[in-house]
Amino acid sequence: MRILSSLFALSLLAVPGGTAIGPAGSLVGLVRTSDGLALPGVAVTLEGPRGERRTTTTGPDGSFRADTLAAGEYAAEVDAPGLVLRGPSRATVGTAEARLDLVLAPAPVSERIVVSATRGEATLSTLGVSAVVLDRTRIDDRAAPSLLPLLQDLPGVATARAGQAGQQGSVFIRGGESRYARVIVDGVPVNQPGGAYDFGTALPFELERIEVVRGAASSLYGSDAVAGVVSLETRRARPDEAPSLRTEGEAGSYGWRRLLGATSGARGLFDWNAGVQRLATDNAEPNGAFAETTIAVSAGARLDARTEARAVVRLDDATVGTPGPTAFGRPDEDASFERRDLVVSTALRRTGARLAQRLSVGYARTDQLSLDPLDSGTWVPEWEGRTGGFSLSDFPNPEGFQNRTARLAAGYQVETALAARHLLTAGAEIEHEKGEIGNRAEEDLLRPERTNLGAYLQDRMLLGRRAYLTVGGRVERNGSYGTRVVPRGALAFRLREGEDATTLRASAGAGIKEPGFLESYGESFFARGNPDLEPERSTTFDVGLEQRLLASRLRAVVTFFHHDYRDQIAFTVLDYDTFEGTYVNLAHTRAQGVEVEIEARPVPLLQLLGQYTFLDGEILESPTDFDPVYAVGQPLLRRPRHQASLSLHVGNPRWSAGASLVRVGERADSDFVGLGLTRNEAHTRLDARLRLRVSGPLEAFCVGENLLDVRYQDVLGYPSLGRAVRGGLRLTLGGR
Q: Taking the model in full, what pTM does it have?
């Protein structure tokens, strides 16, 4: 080929009057958003003299390079629907190296940058995976009292809370169990080892962004990412942000009281964000009061132009009463739940034109204590003319049941641009898990420990000009079940380019989940651990179409998904005389359905967000017939067949207003107290908020929840709060 090229060039020189158009120079540049964010892995197409066309992709720092270009003027195009080129997009190439930096401003419905889907920054439209990003503005606009309403607004995500604020909260992604989502806080996994993450006390406090990836992601994250990933990132100051102080005070229905103080800013090479919040409410239930103190600190330092060090600390200290299923009978007026969570994240990152490296160490600890000091006596459940077939007893535990677990993780990741069209990511991780679990009245608590190792490889490549292919896999060596390999692939194909782009997306992957500590190592007579458990597994795939219309004022996505969950761990009774039991890999479920997501901004002041999820979930194999809700052929517990939400936000810097309407369809559930209830009714909730700048740095705000005063039970037996209103003031001094 080189010989043929040389002969062709010589033939042109030999023609009388001919002009050489052979290689002459190079063109380099950076692709960034208008607020300075680098855009790695996007296609840059250069069109030059005599129809010459060259396509390359940006590297880890958003830079691109094209060599051996013929002399002449080149026009640049960037494939990033939802972002619009602003400023110069042409450059002249001569014998020397030319430079062209490209700046992209957000369209009315802007492109999203997602991190958790690939463990590195990527524009969402170049990924075949299904993901949603909630930025700081959207989190603040929603004004949710806890994290659960924010997640419930997203396609493919269902939530359930056994009580009111502070009490146990679960998140289900695409029909998976609540323990099937990997939950990450500032890069640190916070799930119970092999188990779920209790969202009951999780607040949207000082968060920069929330990312939810739907579909198995164990190829990058290993255990727990069976159905998806939920990633939370603490707020950080922007590089040019002036120092500021912020304080908020809020009060409202059900004894709601909230106080917040925060500071944020950047000075020289350093930036910081720190906040503390105190929240208390009585929850309108006997022994239902909830109180929590939360602290979040994020600090960064730029060691040089390419190197950044960052440390983040989050601390939550919460106490909540646990009166039980009060809809069915008397409350337990002395039981309570105490929880203290600590997350520490440190990272050192160096980013260059062709190579980015990241070294991280993280620690997550949760200390949970369930208390029941007094014997509240027996009671018989009742509900709308039904009476339970047996009485229930209280089981006092003055010392309490302790669940203290910790995860220490360290990892190294390298990202490199290869051959102008490949962005390769490789990494290795080590994680040590340990716990202290059991009744504190007993002398010996269960003290399990486990060490896991993982290595992953991923390639994001550009095929032609319109297809982005992502393939990868992970080797996981788990301390309980040994070694497994999990792959994933995704494709985003641009059927039509430009502001009204059409993108076909598809992805497939496998997921694995390690057993919980009690499932592997439990020593209770009634529930002995099984050291021979296999990992729970999933196979997932989805295919969807994304359409932008009206010059990116409207974005609509329709996705079909199918998830198969196998080797699920379930408790089974071995001896019905003594009720001795253990854990086995016998359960099997599947979930499939359709997700619809709509985002529109018809005029600058108005934003509309909508989603609808249809879920067809079914139990295919079950190890128990203890409750009919778990029988083969039944739908999945607490996961609605239909769920939809619609949000509206309107306003400007001086004022804003918004409303959210959420519809949760009928779903399978169980009272678990002998009443025979197996279905939970549908309900609709309307929330609204209003913000007004009173004077200078002072703002007033008001939030209404469940304004239709609908009485429903999120989980059977646990009544919802009625209509609630809260309001307050926010004072911000300094800043931009």
A: 0.94
Contacts of 132 (CB under 8 A, 6+ apart): 154, 155, 211, 212, 597
- Please tell me the distance from the alpha carbon of residue 395 to that of residue 373, in angstroms, as a whole number: 9
pLDDT of residue 50: 85
Q: Which two tokens stand for residue 532?
A: 């021979």
Q: Yes or no: say if 65 and 73 are a contact pair by the CB < 8 Å rule.
A: no
Tokens for 447, please give them.
């003290």
pLDDT band at 527 (very low <50, low <70, confident <90, very high): confident
Confidence of residue 20 (pLDDT cuts 50, 70, 90): very low
Q: What 3-state DSSP class applies to 206?
A: coil
Residues 6+ apart with CB under 8 A from 733: 244, 245, 246, 697
Where exactly does CATH 2.40.170.20 map onto the chain? Answer: 231-604
| Per-residue confidence (pLDDT) for residue 12, from 0 to 100 | 33
Domain 231-604 indexed as CATH 2.40.170.20: yes
Rounded CA separation 658/154 (Å):
17
Alpha helices in 119-162 (DSSP H): 136-142, 147-152
pLDDT in tens, 148-201: 999 999 999 999 999 999 999 999 999 999 999 999 999 999 999 998 899 999
Q: What per-residue confidence (pLDDT) applies to 536?
A: 96
Contact 128, 541 (CB under 8 A): no
Other beta carbons less than 10 A from residue 245's beta carbon = 15
* CATH class given for the domain over 2-106: mainly beta
**Closest by Cα among 555, 684, 630, 415 to 125:** 555
Indicate the helix (H) or strand (E) that contains 517: helix 517-521
CA distance 651 to 658: 9
Q: What percent of the chain has pLDDT over 70?
A: 96
* 488 within 8 A of 476, measured Cβ to Cβ: no
Give DSSP secondary structure letters for 624-668.
--SSGGGSTTPPPBT--SEEEEEEEEEE-SSEEEEEEEEEE--EE
Segment 638-642 shows an average pLDDT of: 97
φ and ψ at 136, to 5 degrees?
-60, -40
Q: Are strands 655-664 and 667-668 parallel, antiparallel or unpaired?
A: unpaired
Locate CATH 2.60.40.10 in the chain: 2-106
Q: How far apart are CA 411 and CA 414, in angstroms?
A: 10
